[in-house]
Model the fold of this input.
Amino acid sequence: MNARETITLYEAIGGADAVERLVRRFYELMDTLPEAARCRAIHPAELSGSEAKFRDYMTGYLGGPPVYVEKHGHPRLRMRHMPAPIGPEERDEWLLCFRRALEETVPDIRLRAVIMPPIEKLAYHMQNRS
Done:
């Protein structure tokens, strides 16, 4: 198999448009689901900046252009999120929104099965409160 026969997750899910749909839906869910209220509360009142950064991050994370790194440098996610109190509830609410957004925007169950486990691991890593 040559390098061109291998595609990234970014390409497999549909590129920039798919990442845009995923991230937009994630923030819609977080902003409206009562069961995500604690997660929502640790975010700014206005979500457009968070949404843009998360879209940039997910683009690179899934194998697309490294736009987050180009704009903001190394992600240092845990350090950047340390001021936000992320306990088990906030983590689980974030995962609920991400999982639901992924299910709604990425129809291929096999792709979701590849994307979700490292996202779950990352969410647990971001927890900074008991």
Summary: The mean pLDDT is 95. Residues 15-32 form the longest helix (18 residues).
